[in-house]
Design brief:
CATH class of the largest domain: Alpha Beta
Distance between the termini: 36 Å
Strand order of the largest sheet: 1-2-4-3-5-6-9-10-13-14
Shape: globular
Low-confidence stretches: 1-35
Radius of gyration: 24 Å
Amino acid sequence: MVNVTGFRVVSAVLLGFSAFLGLGLVRAQQMPVEPAKEDYVKAHYTKYEYRIPMRDGKKLFTSVYVPKDDSQTYPILMDRTPYSVGPYGEDAYKKSLGPSEEFQKAGYIFVYQDVRGRYMSEGEFVEMHPHIDDKKSAADVDDSSDMYDTIEFLLKHVANNNGKVGIWGISYPGFYTSASIIDSHPALKAASPQAPMTDLFFTDDAYHGGAFMLAANFGFYSAFKPMVEPSLPPKHTVPFDFGTPDGYEFYLKVGNTRNLDKMYLKGTNFLFNDQLSHTTYDDYWKARDLSRHMKNIKCAVMTVGGWFDGEDLSGPFKTFHAIDQFNPGLPNSLVVGPWVHGGWVTTDGDHLGDVKFDAKTSEYFRANIQFPFFEYYLKGKGTGLPKAYVFETGTNVWRKYDSWPPAKAQGKTLYLHAGGKLSFEPPSEKESADEYVSDPAHPVPFIDYMATAVPQRYMVDDQRFASRRTDVLAYASDPLTEDVTIAGPVYPKLRVSSTGTDSDFVVKLIDVYPNDFPEDEAANTSKRVIGAPAIRMGGYQQLLRGEPMRAKFRNSWEKPEALTPGKLVELNFSMPDVNHTFRRGHRIMVQIQSSWFPLADRNPQSFVEIPDAKPEDFKKATEKVFHQKDAASGVEVLVLAQ
């Protein structure tokens, strides 16, 4: 088990030392690069370094690797990053180039650029720099204008380019990819935003359902710090010392989330405080919703995501749909596999935790989807992609669709019933409800093992430990008599009440394996603690999707409203898409709870500004979930007919 928060955090921990994509430690541990690969790059490419002037006079540091074979021309393939383009110096080469090995062997001009205000680039770094739709002067700059000016320079100063440019990037570089293609340069022909940060307040890194994603954000910003002037990466980085291997214990002792700054960061990172302090959907977040600006795009786009991305799961879907909305007719494809954040690069994609996918999906994507996409639009080889190229978990097969969600998917609701039952039939009881006591002093953990970061595997982890808690409600269907495939977003529709003036309601959609599910002793190597036996897959409760919803946002994201204790309210929200088949003999389960710690911050269950909540604000609350005829709770899903 590798306890890492994912691409965004690990990149920051090893700022400047990553050899490829900013993946840092994850790639170094899982996919070591042999020295021969570094020799290949030096043998076949010449490295140049430029400080490219932007229209406002600032210069962006850019590394360019040009094939030594000058008998032909090559397309330019760019990666713009806040995580450093190192190593620096024209004699210091990256160990590998491009999105995968296929590219450096096929021949491209590879370009890596430090974005504004990061490492060796001048200018001011602004978190997810808002796009400027109407630029009135040369002083109005953003990532779209920086990309445009960079392309202009490269076309004129880099020899043997064929006049065509592509761009790609994962996570924060995925955001820069999306931002760079707005009002795109005519030479830009292909782009692939991968796990792009798109709207941090809505189910990307910062907030989910109004709840602050605690462990991931503090883990990231304890390493990703503001820079005041151009500088090389430090030679050594010191990871944050939690003082314990148990993140649950660490964050519980901290108290309110503001104490993380008071006790540890001590005012040194305004970026963290910006994320923490903007607790409603205010102008800060609205300006950073890039999906509102995905206009005037002139290149083909392949947006990539992972079904089990714990950081930027919704970003790819929001980006994909926004591009369709504002650029009708543009070649625009969505690719989603069974991956964690950046997992199509860092893993084989054949399993996650205890769950197997029966194929090396990452290898398939790199060779058969990603590489052909750029070859087609930058070199004219092969063909384009279908509208949606998605992996279906459960059956473990790739599917191609003409739209996403698939046009034939129909909405059906999984209703909660008394006695922990779940079915597609609505309840008929006149009065029926379940209740539990939620105690902020003893929140429900999101994993049943110790970690200070966010283990990527939590997205499919066994939920039996949660089912056994008295503060978690579990509803399960009868064993299925036929396969049930769901494809698209998931919509919880709860009817609830609370004795508190605010509460969270976490909804989890789960695939329950049959008790006689066959064990694969060779493959099942998951350990909870050293020396413990491997987990048994019979009865495994595989998490498919889970999201919190902060009840005070039930009517408005801008203007939260307190709950009236004991009053029934509607709580309707959405969770990111899934593409999963519940196999015959399996059961569908829905779990409901009011904390998910420390994945999300604790709701004190009183209507206060949560980062500044006082100890006395944290109160127990009795939560009631109704499942009766006039107040039916359930989860709406899109079902594909078999």
